[in-house]
Amino acid sequence: MSAAGVTAVAESYQSFNPRAYLQNNYTLPRANFTSEEYAVPWKLRCLADTFATGEIRGQTLIDIGTGPTIYQLLSACDYFEEIVATDYLEVNRAEIRCWLSSKSSVGFDWSPFIKHTCKIEGKGEAWEEKEQKLKKKLKKILPIDVHQPTPLGSSLSEPADALISAFCLEAVSPDRQSFDQALRNVTTLLKPGGHFLMIGALEESFYLAGEAKLSVVPVTELDVKESFDKNGYRIRDFRSYSMPPNLMIGVDDVKGIFFVHAQKLA
Ligand SMILES: C[S@@+](CC[C@H](N)C(=O)[O-])C[C@H]1O[C@@H](n2cnc3c(N)ncnc32)[C@H](O)[C@@H]1O
Prior knowledge:
Elements: H1 3-12, H2 18-25, H3 39-52, E1 58-64, E2 80-87, H4 90-101, H5 111-121, H6 127-137, E3 138-143, E4 160-166, H7 169-172, H8 176-187, E5 190-202, E6 206-209, E7 212-215, H9 221-230, E8 233-242, E9 256-264
Parallel strand pairs: 1-2, 1-4, 2-3, 4-5
Antiparallel strand pairs: 5-9, 6-7, 8-9
This protein binds S-adenosylmethionine.
The site of S-adenosylmethionine (SAM) has 20 residues, from helix 7.
């Protein structure tokens, strides 16, 4: 693994702007809830379908590289007692704390995401109820570095029942080797037999977040599958989404999105 590459990535994240990132990815046109042809509802569908099986549950779920977003935790919150958010940057952890504590609209407005998730889950749950449930279960917001052999240091004593991660490993790894190593590192946080749900960018080389231009290691579907295979997982589901031209808006060069549900071998 290139240590210099990892250091350069860490430096580039120092100017990451959470609000600009949210604006680029979690407003129109990508967060258009009228059809699953749009990127955000496609991701929410993958998560809702997978959690609806009822198979992925337990005491603790860790989200790797939460960033300033909570959409990835909405369908999960029915199935875990405790959800742990993690991020490398304090500005992103602060954004999550802001959402947790605010009763008004100080932070980003996640209500359309919550309403849509309630709708596709079809349980007749009121969106305010889901929001409160997630806020109650989101018990820790921890610093993480996926390039360390113990990414959370000594913060958690028990491995988690499940991991989730969206757009993190490829966005913080300078090359394929370091992506594989990062997956190996975070796998130590998961119990044998535990489930990993990962969403990520296909064939992307950069994205923007305000002044920051972040390099991304371009990965194919095959690269992702190989990496999970090599790290001792069985792939249970793999889905991909091709980015339609009307969602290519200059904030990145992503070609598509993958969703993988993998289970760590016991
Ligand atoms: C593309 S964002 C993804 C955010 C969010 N999960 C989403 O779905 O939009 C990548 C995230 O990885 C975080 N990050 C950067 N370096 C990291 C590292 N070494 N370990 C873990 N996370 C890191 C960034 O702060 C950022 O929040």
